[in-house]
Design brief:
85 residues; mainly alpha
Length: 85
């Protein structure tokens, strides 16, 4: 009777996570540079980021165990809001 192979031998080789992450980061940086050069695309991205920040800040303090926002946090969010619009 033949010996059975281990399950580890059947599994595909593990892909090096650091290589994949570096490749993914490089692609993201290339896309970011393309967006920076295109003014209309950059403006649209900033507008979308501002809308997303508003959306997230609206639901940010409603989670279980979260502390209410302080006045300084609210002021900081208001200052940051202008940067993304």
């Amino acid at each position: 009777m033949a010996k059975r192979k281990s399950k580890a031998a059947d599994a595909p080789m593990a892909y090096d996570d650091s290589k994949w992450r570096a490749q993914s980061d490089m692609e993201a940086l290339c896309r970011a540079e393309e967006i920076k050069r295109d003014r209309t695309r950059l403006a649209a991205a900033k507008k979308a980021a501002g809308a997303r920040m508003k959306e997230l800040s609206a639901i940010g303090g409603k989670g279980r165990g979260s502390k209410p926002r302080t006045d300084s946090q609210a002021a900081r969010e208001k200052r940051l809001e202008g940067k993304y619009l």
